[in-house]
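Quick log. Single chain, no ligands specified.
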Amino acid sequence: MTTTDRREAHYTKGETAVLFVDMQKMFCIPGTDPQHPEMNAEHYYFRRLKDLVIPNQVRILQAARAHGVQVMHTIIEALTEDCRDASLDHKLSDLLVPKGHPLAPPIDELAPIRNEIVLPKTSSGVFNSTAIDYVLRNLGIRYLIVAGVVTDQCVDMAVRDAADRGYLVSVPGDACATYSQERHDTALRAYKGYCWITDTDTVISRINAIAEKAA
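-> predicted structure:
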């Protein structure tokens, strides 16, 4: 095993991607989530999103776009308007987002630009209900930076599944959120064996270093 096989290895040009998990309007704007109608703008989750997570994700996004790092978004959205293609778990949980729903797209702060990849999914794990593995391999990706919501559910699934498929995963913990600080911290501790737990400043410095090495 070489130094490039370590989870905290420096990113390399053409082999690095950022994946934003479920940063969509339905789950990131107060008052729009049918699963949690009781949560208002003052809830811990939305305060963390507003004050910390979204600003950090914007910084990561800007750095990635500036230095040619692949940017990918995954959102919960069915392929059909009646959600008949949704997973059994999502049907049982009533977690159904019809194709074309106005709250399905990523939030405005992270809105995909032309030619960025958006993968709609109908399961917690993006690797289970999209072609993301196929796409990442076609892109030649080795290093995957994962940020999003929620830390102990869909982010968790993305991290573990990516690690099992041979990607070197980084998770900036301050660019992720779930419904309490305790749940967030517990999740990061639980899957730190599958990824490199780091922070936004470090991720950005590593992305910037790609350009410096290329020069």
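The first strand starts at residue 16 and ends at 21.
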